[in-house]
Amino acid sequence: MRVEVFSGRGEPYGVVEKAMAEAARAAANGDEYDEVWCVFDVEAPRAHSRLAPALALAARHDIRCAISNPCFEVYLLLHYEELTAYLTTSEASRRLEQHPCGYSLRGKQVDFEALRPGRAKAFSRAAMLDRLHLGKPVTARNPSTSVPGLVTVLMSHTGLHSTR
What we know:
Layout: H1 12-28, E1 37-41, H2 51-60, E2 64-69, H3 73-77, H4 89-97, H5 112-115, H6 119-132, E3 144-145, H7 147-158
């Protein structure tokens, strides 16, 4: 398995466009990707304006998306606590700083090894949020995250099938 990460800040539509360009570049070089994923946040209290078009574009180009509402920190928080109430991005970040994973809003760094013991709970809690928000558009699914889907794919390719 080879994972390439193209980072940078951007709104979801731009992230999907960059993923499409990278996939096209790889295919032109005879090195096509098996899967292409985009990871982005909805943001709150104000969602990205081109989120829906970004999701439609990704679907048309077979690009999978791991979306967190309001932010990726929700996935990390789920390792430690249940969430059901609406969160802003800044609230989620402040709450995560209170947990022992080394997260700092300034550096946006985290000790992923510290999260490992809570992975099963995070997956379960994310699934509970999916049920809670069933049928709602992604912008109304606060809090929520589909990052466990990406983590599951990564674990299946590395032989780490357990969520423990």
